[in-house]
Each structure stands twice: as C-alpha cells, then as structure tokens.
Amino acid sequence: MVEKHMVSISNLVKKYPSGQEALKGVNLEVNANEILALIGPSGAGKSTLIRCVNRLVEPTSGKIIINGIDVCTLGYKALRMQRRKIGMIFQEYALVDRLTVMENVLSGQLGYTGTFKSIFRKFPPDVVDSAIKLLERVGLLDYVDSRADQLSGGQRQRVGIARALIQRPDLLLVDEPTASLDPKTARQIMRLIVELVIEYKLAVIINIHDVQLAQMFAQRIVGLRDGIVVYDGTPDQVDNSVLTEIYGEEDWDQGKKRHAQEEDDDEDDDIDQVE
Ligand SMILES: Nc1ncnc2c1ncn2[C@@H]1O[C@H](COP(=O)(O)OP(=O)(O)OP(=O)(O)O)[C@@H](O)[C@H]1O
Ligand SMILES: [Mg+2]
Predict the structure, then answer these.
(1) pTM summary value
(2) Which residue among 42, 91, 175, 208 has the greatest number of ligand 1 atoms within 8 angstroms of its CB, and so is best to mutate?
C-alpha cells in the first residue's frame, strides 16, 4: 500500500517514567512539502511529540510511520539511517561553542548522534562544498572560521539551520527556533526556515509559542493541549475561540481594545482642541 502522507502518527502515547502522561493518544498526519506549526501551552507535549518522531524520546505506544517506515520498531542501525533523513533545529541552538561555524555545520553530516570525536574525521570535499554553499545561503559566509560562541543568537540559529540541512533531510523538526530572539530576528529566522523548506522541498513541523509568527509563516496549524490535538486547521481560522480551546480562557482582544480606546481618546482630544 502506498502511504498517502509523509508522516502518519496514530494513537501516540508517551508516559515518562515520572508518571507524567505527556501525550495521550495523538493522531496527526503531515503531507510532503507541508509547513506545519504546532502551538499549545507550556507543558502541552509539543517537544515530546516532535522528539518522538525521531525517537529522541521513546514513545510508550502508538505508531509513527514516516515514508512508509514505522520508526517505532526500528533497531539501532536502521534508526540511525532513518534519522539522517530527519533534520532537527533546537531553540537553544545546541552548537558546540568551541568549534567553528564550519565544524558545527559539518557535524550535522554525522547525524545528531555522531560522537564528538568523529567531528574531526576528514570530510569529503563535496560535503565541505555543500557546507560552504549552505553557509552562504544562510548569510554566514564571512563567519566560516568564527567560533560558535562569538556569534549572536540569530547567527547561531543560522548555523543550526545549516547544520540541520547539510544531511539533506526530507523532514525537518524545529523546536521553538525563535524563543530567544528579538522580534525582527525571529521573523528573519522563520522566513529563512520557510524559504529553505520550500527550496529543498521538505516537510516541516515547527513548535512555536508565538501564534502570530505561526499564522504568518505556516500553511497549517495544529493546537496541542494537555497531550491531545484540539485544533487542526488553517492559520486564518485561528480566532479567539480557537485560542481559548488551545490555551484556555483569556481576553484575547485586550491589547487591541486598549489600543482602540487610546485612539478614541486621541480623537476626543482633537475635538476638544477644535472646540
Ligand atoms: N524528560 C522528562 N521526564 C519527565 N517528564 C517530562 C520530561 N520531559 C517533559 N516532561 C513532561 O511532559 C509534559 C510535556 O512536556 P513538553 O516539554 O513536551 O511540553 P512543551 O509543550 O514542549 O512545553 P514548552 O512549551 O514549555 O516547551 C510536561 O508536563 C513535562 O513536565
Ligand atoms: Mg517544548
């Protein structure tokens, strides 16, 4: 049978040894070339979910089929091969500080399970070539030999992006890529990720707290609450009632109302002056 979806997750449950049930039967399908944002309150299970997809977290039960392969049943070697096809970008960048930008990007070629020592293996020229091309694409060509700890947060995330792409994955998992960045840099990083996902024809799942950014850049939004999918739809359908469903009761218009009130007050002042 040909799999219709690139990723097909069914009845996924994750119970941590602490007893915490982080995922309570998640069903989710991701299509090839799809840009999906996963939103939800802190502790909803977003990181757990994407980490189950590459088995950085071991699922308790359920199925995760990627391109027809059930990743939950893979042995160590097969899992390593599978992980090569899945790139990961982290909030905290996860760079090795005392290595150069180039070394950090090349380390992605080993998969994120590669041992630290193996970074110093010789890399074939074509791999070095693609690292340079990627660094140029993410705007870091001038920083190839800089140490990772000399970079700004935005630059570090650009290295993280290049490192995730060097292994030519067909699925990208991204966990809060902008949480430590200022609003403009956050937009630039999201834009870069989305542009590259389209250029490389990947599917991507992006965990993100910023709903506005999710709406701006994703094609589809999935809301997770307390280990369950409670919303799955288009970005423009995410209205106040959806936000309440995902995050709970809140006056979502408060900022807008205050702004409108201030504008009204300004108009009143103008009228006062005319009189
Ligand atoms: N390694 C772990 N051991 C035990 N419990 C964990 C572990 N990792 C996460 N949890 C618990 O599982 C639940 C889901 O956590 P998870 O990190 O997946 O949420 P999240 O949606 O990514 O939250 P955030 O938005 O804060 O990153 C939480 O209750 C958390 O405390
Ligand atoms: Mg998280």
Answers:
(1) 0.90
(2) 42
